[in-house]
Design brief:
The protein is built from two helices and 16 strands. By secondary structure, the chain is mainly beta. The strands form four sheets. Strands 6, 7, 10, 11, 12, 13 and 14 form a seven-stranded mixed sheet that branches. A five-stranded mixed sheet has the order 1-2-3-4-5, with no helix packed on it. Strand 3 and strand 4 form a beta hairpin. Bound molecules: zinc ion (ZN). The site of zinc ion has 5 residues, from loops. Zinc ion binds next to loops. Keywords: Plasmid. It comes from Gloeothece verrucosa (strain PCC 7822) (Cyanothece sp. (strain PCC 7822)). This is JAB domain-containing protein.
Length: 219
């Protein structure tokens, strides 16, 4: 029985399908080192580092959202709830069950700059999407967020709720790697909500060498 949690592949033609018993895989390809992971909500191949490896085949980054997008009515409720919480931050979970998206508000201790769990026995991995608000501040992932977001999940942050409503979305791979993705495969959003993924003046640098143009680094 294969009990490896992390596997390593060399891209030499076809790449083995992802073994869902794994947490994630590394793939060394002609054009760089990639990480691959999958759960019930998505599959992702994301570039970790560009490098030339002669003799291997080239692969591309990819992201596939396997669930229907969060409908606009729920996205609107999220922004309304976050506004009602101003000036505090707010944390919300989204779960897809029985063909429906369910929005829940975990017990939390809120402040304008942080959120703390109130419940010690809260199962922190029991969600498909975790979203939090930065209130009046911009939608970016802070160093604290990087430390807190340790699951295999989609993470979103919203901000400037009254000034210029905005969202930033990323895939977290057990805190080892974050891949920034556009919001649109995941959320249906009201026009006028800014997706920070496309904001070239934001904190993210966009990669030029991939079909998906994912930004990889946070300054
Ligand atoms: Zn945050």
């Amino acid at each position: 029985m294969d009990i490896k949690l992390i596997d390593h592949h060399m891209a030499k033609g076809s790449i083995y399908p992802f073994n869902t018993n794994h947490l994630y895989d590394y793939i060394l390809a002609n054009n760089g080192l990639f990480i691959r992971a999958e759960n019930r909500a998505f599959s992702i191949v994301s570039l970790l580092k560009t490098c030339d490896v002669v003799g291997l085949v080239e692969i591309q980054e990819s992201f596939k959202f396997k669930l229907p997008p969060v409908p606009m009515a729920i996205s609107n409720t999220i922004f309304q709830k976050a506004k009602l919480s101003l000036p505090d931050e707010l944390l919300l979970h989204l779960n897809y069950n029985k063909n429906t998206w369910n929005l829940t508000e975990p017990l939390q201790q809120q402040s304008p700059t942080s959120i703390k769990w109130k419940s010690a026995d809260f199962d922190e991995f029991d969600f498909d999407i975790e979203l939090h608000s930065h209130g009046h501040l911009i939608a970016y992932f802070s160093a604290t967020d990087n430390k807190d977001e340790t699951g295999l999940a989609i993470y979103a942050v919203i901000g400037q709720l009254e000034e210029m409503p905005q969202i930033s979305v990323r895939v977290g791979i057990y805190g080892q790697h974050f891949a920034y993705i556009p919001a649109d495969p995941v959320f249906e959003l009201e026009e006028g909500i800014k997706d920070k993924f496309y904001d070239t003046t934001s904190y993210f640098i966009r990669s030029n060498n991939s079909a998906y143009s994912y930004p990889h680094r946070e300054l």
